[in-house]
Amino acid sequence: MRRKYQCQVLSDVIMLFILLSLMGFHLWSEYIHEWLGTILFLMVMLHVGLNTHWLQKLFQGEYCAFRILQLSINALLLLLFLSAVISGVMLSRHLLPDLVIHSSSDLVRKVHMASVHWLQIIIALHLGIHWRMLANFFCKIWHISPVSVLMTRILPLIFSVIAVYGIYAFMQRERLPYLFFQVDFAFFDFDESMFLFYWDFFAITLSGAYLSQILIWLMTFRQRARR
Asked: Between the N and C ends of the chain, which has fewer C-beta atoms within 10 Å?
């Protein structure tokens, strides 16, 4: 297995953990939150650098439904990431407090909250697109057969249950208003369990990944029906 691909998967896993940490703004100090955002920015740059081959093939070949879906998700991901970074830089009070564009206005704060919540969903869809490839990767390094009962029955069942719980967590934590700029000030429960918080947001991310898996399955099913 190529070392470059191993580095890619490792950096992707780290980025996912950092993203979840950033969502738990109230569980860390604001100072750490800003540093984690900076580290995530640098790791995303590394991620793009390791995937330049995908960018070089953008204008080559035909665009099937899957490729259009992949491009749309990646384009949304880029826009939301830029929005989250720029609004985060404007809000920074520790690392970049004297920046010319600094602003702590309600609008910038709402843009930042909406961007990061949308970003979590789109990253989850992005993860779902690469789900099979990641599954094959972990099968190889853990020496598990991809056609074993564990991979074809047990793990899909466990992940499906977690994904359904993720939908419940999304609704129970009232995340929807954040996506549509309807939250002026985020509510944080400073007494809640860190484990429960991250478990809920991991489950929400898994729900998004499964959603894109369903979309891909529907596309595949439709293509087969046409033949």
From this structure: C
Q: Which 8-state DSSP code applies to residue 94?
A: S
Closest CA to 23 of 118, 159, 163, 126: 118
123-150 pLDDT, tens digit per residue, is 999 999 888 888 888 888 888 898 899 9
Q: How far apart, in Å, do the first and last CA atoms of the chain sit?
A: 35
Question: Would you state the structure tokens that stand for residue 43, as one six-digit string?
Answer: 């790791």
> In the numeric block, which tokens belong to residue 134?
């990641």
Q: Which amino acid is at 176?
A: L
Q: Give the sign of the dihedral formed by CA 14, CA 20, CA 21, CA 22.
A: positive
202 vs 208: CA distance, rounded Å? 10
Round to whole Å and give the CA distance between 24 and 33.
Answer: 9
DSSP SS3 for 216: helix
Alpha carbons 25 and 85: distance in angstroms, whole number: 15
Prediction pTM value: 0.85
Tell me the C-alpha distance between 77 and 121, whole Å.
Answer: 9
63-99: per-residue pLDDT in tens? 888 888 889 999 999 999 999 999 999 999 999 888 8
